Amino acid sequence: MGKLKVLSNTFNSLTGRSARHNRALRDITDLLAEIQRFYSIYNLQEGSPKFESLLAKIGYAKFDLTNLAYHTRPMIKTSKDIKGEKISPIIDEISNELEDLRRALMNPALRKTHLRKAISELHKSVTNLQDKLSKIEYQ
Questions:
Q1: Statement: residue 86 has pLDDT above 60
Q2: Contacts of 67 (CB under 8 A, 6+ apart)
Q3: Can you say whether the dihedral through the CA atoms of 29, 35, 39, 45 is positive or negative?
Q4: For 1-107, where are the alpha helices, taking DSSP H only?
Q5: The pTM is what?
Q6: Which helix (H) or strand (E) holds 119?
Q7: CATH of span 2-134
Q8: Residue-wise pLDDT tens digits, 7-24
Q9: Per-domain residue ranges of the chain
């Protein structure tokens, strides 16, 4: 089994599959860091998010959410290069939840009813993605 693993690793290295895997893993990790930065700027950490900071800077938050959604959409395709776990459906969920959160901020009627739910769902998906990424190694 050891020789087969060495042969597989050599083949993946020569074809560039390992490089694509590592690049995709790094890009997804960078995306998670951007989302965590968004959480910290607007004081939305898990537990009991406080919306005062988010609502006080609502214009900046909308811009940041648009930027995050813009960076997340191409990651759906990029995440297919990661071997092992299926990451692309989770990235798609995160992209949709970022859009839902942005819509909830733009519409005052939705702001009161959907904001807490949208943030909670985003937290769940990000946690799920972090769990999946912790099982994957660089090659």
A1: yes
A2: none
A3: negative
A4: 2-15, 17-41, 52-56, 58-78, 88-106
A5: 0.84
A6: helix 108-134
A7: 1.20.1420
A8: 666 766 666 677 888 889
A9: 2-134
Q: What angle do CA 96, 102, 106 make, to 5 degrees?
A: 145
- pLDDT of 1 strictly over 60: no
Dump pLDDT digits (tens) for 30-47: 999 999 999 999 888 876
CB-based burial label for 125 (10 Å; 0-12, 13-18, 19+): buried
- With beta carbons less than 8 A apart as the criterion, state whether 29 and 134 touch: no
Q: Write down the residue that tokens 């995160």 correspond to.
A: 94
- Please answer whether residues 40 and 54 qualify as being in contact, where contact means their C-beta atoms are separated by less than 8 angstroms: no
